[in-house]
Amino acid sequence: MTKDSIFSQKAFIFDFDGTLVDSMGFWFSEQVRACCGPAEYFAYMKTKYDNEICFKADAGAFLNEVRRRGIPFCIASHTPLSCSYGCYTRLGISGGCSFYISPEDIGSDKHDPRIYLFCAERLGFSPGECAVFEDHPKFAGVAKRAGFFVVGIREKHYADGEEELSHNADILIESYGELYTCPD
Predict the structure, then answer these.
(1) Phi, psi (5° rounding) for residue 75?
(2) Average pLDDT of every residue of the chain
């Protein structure tokens, strides 16, 4: 499969942070590092999701094309929806999204393929019929080994892992605009 045939996949599973939304700069900030535990950094990040975090390059237009083509999609994120809900709704990602799931929902993080397999099953497709969009090099590998087609999204905060991401992804992109031609 090539970039030109991405729309032949029957369903899409998107990671959220660094893949659909440009949030990694906040996650890797001094403010988050200074937080004392998950409750504090999720509270800090919630304000960023509610007010500041925007789409990655061309991700909003790509999602509109996915909706236009009727391709079912979901979110599989390490960030709980209770934290990212403001961004998820403010940017309109929730429109047409089948569901949003995080490790707390299934009791397993993305180091285990169960989150991706659960998504495929719930969407009604086999792993081979689904594309996983992922920026994290290791998680891209988890999805690939589970039989998914993997679109690697370059993320500058994971630049040290780009070789691993390139190895684990079927295709590697900088921007969603590389996957399709925007209608005029």
Answers:
(1) -115, 135
(2) 91
